[in-house]
């Protein structure tokens, strides 16, 4: 037994089209084909792999039954957005390249983001919220890109802090 990789996430939302559009327009996902489940969905791809599935929250009894997990209690809305600390997923992290293109795309789409050097690693991170559902998105880039773009002036070309 062993885990191999994360296959996909499913976002149930009040506005599937706007959610799809944000991920496509702001982050560069590609909308692509999906099976007919008997209820509307969008599948978003990185390359040839579908990684984000999007559906209408509480669309139909058929959808609720299809998505039901063992132990789900009758009448509980598991698709409702949970408050912080509720056990809902806090953020989705994507490993990326082409930081300058990402920053340009985010700014062109009016996306506010914060950025930082990751503590204890040689990663550079951008954080933002997807505005339709409030999902926090983390974009991780290799330190080489941050150095090349001058995002972390204290780093050397080996990705470590200069002696101070």
From TrEMBL:
PROSITE patterns in alphabetical order = VOC
An example of a Pfam family matching this protein is Glyoxalase
Tell me where in this chain the VOC domain is found: 5-142
Q: Which InterPro entries does the record match to this protein?
A: Glyas_Bleomycin-R_OHBP_Dase (IPR029068), Glyas_Fos-R_dOase_dom (IPR004360), VOC_core (IPR037523)
Q: What is this protein called?
A: VOC domain-containing protein
UniProt organism field = Ramlibacter agri
């Amino acid at each position: 037994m062993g885990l191999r990789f994360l296959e996909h996430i499913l976002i149930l939302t009040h506005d599937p089209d706007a959610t799809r559009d944000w991920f496509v327009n702001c982050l560069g996902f590609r909308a692509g084909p999906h099976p007919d489940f008997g209820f509307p969905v969008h599948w978003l791809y990185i390359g040839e792999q579908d990684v984000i599935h999007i559906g209408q929250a509480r669309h139909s009894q058929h959808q609720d039954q299809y998505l039901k997990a063992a132990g789900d209690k009758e009448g509980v809305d598991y698709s409702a957005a949970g408050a912080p600390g509720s056990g809902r997923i806090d953020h989705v992290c994507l490993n990326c390249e082409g930081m300058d293109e990402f920053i340009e795309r985010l700014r062109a789409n009016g996306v506010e983001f914060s950025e930082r050097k990751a503590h204890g690693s040689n990663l550079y991170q951008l954080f933002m919220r997807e505005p339709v559902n409030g999902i926090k998105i983390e974009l991780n880039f290799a330190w080489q890109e941050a150095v090349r773009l001058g995002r972390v002036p204290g780093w050397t070309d080996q990705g470590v802090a200069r002696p101070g």
